[in-house]
Amino acid sequence: MKTKPKQPTNNTIDTTAKYNWLFITIIFIVTFTVYFNSLKAPFILDDYSKIEKNMDIRDLNNVWHKLIYPYDKTQNNWARNDPSRPLTYLSFAINYHFNQLNPFGYHLTSVVLHILNAILLFFLLKKLLKLIRYKDSVNIPFFVSLIFAIHPINAVVASYVFNRSDILCTLFFISSLLFFIKAGETNAKYLILSLLCFVLSLSAKQSAVTLPVFILIIDYIFLNNFDNKLLFKNKYYHFSYWLVLFLYLAFRYFYLGGIGDLEGSPTTSRYSYFITQPFILLKYLKLLVLPIGVSFEHGADNYYSILEPKVLISVVIILIIVILICFAYRNKNNLSKMYIFCMSWFFIHLSPTSSFFPTTAVMTENRIYLSGVGIILLLIFTLHYLKINLISIKIQKVTILAFLILFISFLCANTMKRNELMQNPYLLWKDVITKYPDHFRAHNNLALLYQDNNEYSKAIKEYNIALALNPKYTPSINNLACIYYVQQDYDKAADEYKKILKLEPNNFAALNNLGNIYSIKKEHTTAILYYEKTLTINPTLAEAYNNMAILYEEQNKHSKAKESYKKAVNVDPNNAMLHYNYGLLLHKLNLKNEAIKEFEIALILDPKQQNIKSFLNDLKNNTNP
Fold first, then answer.
1. How far apart are CA 161 and CA 440, in angstroms?
2. What 3-state class would DSSP assign to 508?
3. SS3 at position 308
4. Does the pLDDT value for residue 609 go beyond 80?
5. What's the rounded Cα separation, in Å, for the pair 16 and 77?
6. Confidence of residue 191 (pLDDT cuts 50, 70, 90)
7. Rounded to an integer, what distance in angstroms lies between the CA atom of residue 78 and that of residue 97?
């Protein structure tokens, strides 16, 4: 790679490499201490479906074909791996191999990886400051990395296992940048490692798509000092990153089934989402500088006109920031370089989720896990710049250091407080509701906790609040129906499922549940109709085939029952219960050999089922089971 030769400067380069281990040790000890209380936290929210109920992560021997597969939104894939993030789910599978479902191991892994990110960030910033021959290339990276590690806004990533995708994406994102710089300084062979890290970053989370832009920015500003000619000479190196990105997007589109968030569904229009984001960006900035009001979820409002005051003011402020970036580009001194880099880092990293591409939530704190580094770096760099250039009185310099120590102490205390909330999901959602009383998802999630604890009256109250805030929120309707079903109030349960079908006519889960209700009520014809509708929409739902087979069996329609059981085991061949049920029918039909075969398969799939084992032994010994 071609880079501009470094020019002599009057500034003396900081050569305190011997302090690296001291700073790294401080980062590790402080961060681990701050996050120690998070290690006792249980699984919460999406951890239930993506870890506890996710069968895909439970066998490392067969995990590869479960990591990447064509995604079909018509199927119920929520308790499966997200195929767009295979590296993340591989890490969960490794955790399961060693820890099963003990949350401690998962939390420990996330915290250690988070600390590793802070250390990698330290070396990246140290390298960038050395490239511009800045006086202090150690203290600034240390404070930025430490603040990144213990900032309460990042607790939603480090303490919430499901968000490990952000941690892994960041780890390989920074590694890719480090290897690229190494390739520019020494040997172009490091470019291969940089590209490999780019692929790994993409396989952790799709937000890594911004990396080619930052490769370009670092090459232009830091390696070549705004030299267009040298940058152009590196065009083939840059092309390799854009080629990887193109192939990745093509793979997502043609094989996985989409470029955007596969599992997220927009809650507002593209236009409303886009014009709301300027206000959200400023909220992110505020939380980074003064983290008061951090929340596990935010109930941000959607805006529908650019003329609304909050939107208009936010747009004006962002335009001013863009103008300042343009002025900084004209100056091209060290302060300008850092300002351009920091603001670009913040805005460009957020562009995939805070622009034209609407997703489930308008605002989530995990989106600024990596992008927030730009603002933290700008703050620390500005303070240091003032200290060495504008402040001459020693007491004022001491004041800046004292401010940093107090600020870091404030961040540590708030992060530890957030981690205490993570230990108690009830308090976590009550905290969200305190800050956002109209947050319908928070009411739904609190109700779900009550429901799981059989506190049905409290759960119903919270679900009704959620539905009063958003009558079209089908998860709350479904959960309410489940409570009525458990309470054997089948008419109320059926009414709730029918409400879902009015909003989502192709909701196969609601159709299947209605079939179950009418089956219990002995209205077999109606139940069969609902099962058939279910299977028309989702022909791979083994549960519906099984339920229909049971009904046919009760009606002595054995040929139809046999056909339905056979379809069930073909659709879900790893379900022991389905093979067992099928075996019982075959035994009833005096098809002994076929029945034995199904019982043997069931026993292989679930060796702990003693009833299957004894039934099989009796059958083989010609004893009447």
1. 23
2. helix
3. coil
4. no
5. 52
6. very high
7. 21
Q: What's the gap between Cα 9 and its chain centre? A: 45
Burial track 67-86 (b if 16+ CB lie within 10 A, e otherwise): bbbebeeeeebeebbbbbbb
With bands split at pLDDT 50, 70 and 90, how would you rate the model's confidence at 390? low
- How many CA atoms are closer than 13 Å to the CA of 94, on its beta-carbon side? 8
Distance CA 353, CA 123 (A): 27
* Each residue's pLDDT tens digit, 205-251: 999 999 999 999 999 888 888 888 888 888 888 899 999 999 999 99
Confidence of residue 69 (pLDDT cuts 50, 70, 90): confident
Residue with tokens 């281990």: 21
Tokens, residue 254: 């043609």
pLDDT of residue 490: 93
The two structure tokens encoding residue 335:
């302060």
Rounded to the nearest 10 degrees, what angle do helices 139-150 and 20-35 cross at?
10
Structure tokens, 100: 């099963």
Q: Could you tell me what percent of the chain has a pLDDT over 90? A: 51
Here the tokens at position 553 are: 């069996």
* Domain assignments of the chain as residue spans, ordered by start: 17-421
Distances (CA, A) of 534 to 155, 538, 539: 41, 6, 8
What 3-state class would DSSP assign to 493?
helix
Predicted local distance difference test score (pLDDT) of residue 395: 65
150 in Cβ contact with 34 (< 8 Å): yes
Q: Write the CB contacts of 100 (distance below 8 Å, at least 6 apart in sequence).
A: none
Contacts of 167 (CB under 8 A, 6+ apart): 110, 113, 114, 117, 157, 158, 369
Q: How many residues does the chain have?
A: 625
Q: Using an 8 Å Cβ cutoff, are 140 and 125 in contact? A: yes
